[in-house]
Amino acid sequence: EVQLVESGGGLVQPGGSLRLSCAASGFTFSSFWMHWVRQAPGKGLDYVSRINSDGTITQYAGSVKGRFTISRDNAKSAVYLEMNSLRADDTAVYYCAKDLHILGFDYWGQGALVTVSS
Amino acid sequence: QSVLTQPPSVSAAPGQKVTISCSGSSSNIGNNYVSWYQQLPGTAPKLLIYDNNKRPSGIPDRFSGSKSGTSATLGITGLQTGDEADYYCGTWDSSLGAGVFGGGTKLTVL
């Protein structure tokens, strides 16, 4: 059974940092692109970032470029999102998602809530 | 403001058919595959359609997808009360170099 489990969410002050982790199981992790998607409270889906199967290609939404860093450890079947210079508008549930084929996300984690507030 | 445009809401009676549109541009829908997701309250999104018109295993054929030019459409037939949810389209935007989603459409089954 495929499982994606996010962790590392919480309350952080504006300007602070947080690192999200996503532990994957039930599939050959090293063969798939992985993504982060977020959803602010009561709002729609917002694309964040993606990383290719061996970690050599990363891409980001304009709103997080230069502040967020995606990475992965295929030995641990995990993907990470390092978030710096956090702002109030980064407050959201952050989902990691497995790519079936070109942004068709066939499995999603349960989400990790990040709240940026003083 | 979302890059992809969806109607905020649609509604139809049980058993009927509904379509949800998703409008974009040549940099996204026009030259990339489109996916569709269903999100029930308090849950993660669920993939309904990928590569414009393919259904993952386990998704009933009541759900269908199509694409023409810079627009895509999700169709749902034989509506059930359990289909009440938010629906999102998504694709890659080659100009932005990032994924993009529509603003979401709330489906009400009357």
Q: What is the radius of gyration of chain B?
A: 13 Å
Question: What is the rounded distance between the termini of chain B?
Answer: 28 Å
Largest sheet of chain B: 6 strands, mixed
Terminal CA distance of chain A: 40 Å
Order of helices and strands of chain A: EEEEEEEEEEE
Set down the secondary structure blueprint.
The complex is a heterodimer of chains A (118) and B (110).
Chain A: E1 3-7, E2 10-12, E3 18-25, E4 34-39, E5 45-51, E6 58-60, E7 68-73, E8 78-83, E9 92-99, E10 105-108, E11 112-116
Parallel strand pairs in A: 2-11
Antiparallel strand pairs in A: 1-3, 3-8, 4-5, 4-9, 5-6, 7-8, 9-10, 9-11
Chain B: E1 9-12, E2 18-23, E3 34-39, E4 46-49, E5 63-68, E6 71-76, E7 85-93, E8 98-101, E9 105-109
Explained architecture:
The complex is a heterodimer of chains A (118) and B (110). By secondary structure, chain A is an all-beta fold. Chain A contains no helices and 11 strands. With 110 residues, chain B is mainly beta. Helix content of chain B is 0%, strand content 45%. Chain B contains no helices and 9 strands. Chain B is globular, with a radius of gyration of 13 Å. Chain B starts with 8 loop residues before the first strand and ends with a strand. The chains are: A mainly beta (118), B mainly beta (110). At the A-B interface, strand 5 and strand 10 of A face strand 3, strand 4, strand 7 and strand 8 of B.
